[in-house]
């Protein structure tokens, strides 16, 4: 057994639906081990500024169903400098923290890794981001909700596309990862999915896409055509692509950028359950004396992966692309 007394939690990077459910599970499970629990506000900013609150069962009641994060999230440029990292490590010592749980994306885990070099306590990561771009877990907290939110929007856009016989380019988030676009596209029956993972040569990809689209629209007397596009996947914007499509096909094309709506809203059941499982698993890892890893889920089993390996998503993305190609109709 470790001599763990005081556990801290922070949420960092883009907020994701289900982060609150993770804070709840972490807090309740840590309290059941009789650990004290504190939450730093605003990601690494709160850590550097020693801005924190004690967390009790009462603090985390009534939050499992809420989007956002009660601890607030942020990006913290100070962590990109040695001085900032040293300050954060110093705060952990001053606040008598024995273990820190970081809920965030792979950038947040790089921060955790950097911290580990200057602080002797235990560090555990929980994957929380709508992007699902982290190695070592099949899903990140927030991904399931973000797909459902995108899907709801795409379905609505399909209605107006149908009514006006227009085509729509719908841009979804994901940073540099196309998994959100692929899964939302698959679930909405989008005619085209555009993401980096599917593009080798942008011009060739676009030429083929335009021709395929023109042929399909020629055959359909009352055309509606939806393209789901991952942000940052092309060198042109969604609106520029829509303009090019209008010109090539002669069918009126519009763009819609879903944006931050995908980060908000009540977490769906899948994210609440995942967050609860990972929250409990993180505390169990701490109780065993583990540190320097992220907890994840694969084939319904809890896994751990060193922070250093969480950003290596190449093989994982290839698996997703293979699955996508298999299911596209
Ligand atoms: N190389 C790094 N060294 C130290 N800290 C880092 C590093 N990269 C990121 N961080 C810290 O983690 C924070 C969050 O990182 P980032 O903005 O990449 O988001 P993320 O955790 O990947 O989540 P998401 O992709 O969902 O927004 C940064 O603002 C910074 O404080
Ligand atoms: O909130 P910001 O800093 O604009 O970041 C937006 C990015 O964060 C995410 O929402 C989560 O990583 C990405 O999908 C998006 O590219």
UniProtKB/TrEMBL annotation:
Record-annotated Phosphofructokinase domain positions: 6-285
InterPro entries listed in its UniProt record: ATP_PFK, ATP_PFK_prok-type, Phosphofructokinase_dom, PKF_sf
Cofactor(s) listed: Mg(2+)
GO terms for MF: 6-phosphofructokinase activity
Compartments where found: Cytoplasm
NCBIfam families assigned to the protein according to its UniProt record, in alphabetical order: PRK03202.1 (NF002872)
Protein name, per record: 6-phosphofructokinase
Organism: Pseudoalteromonas qingdaonensis
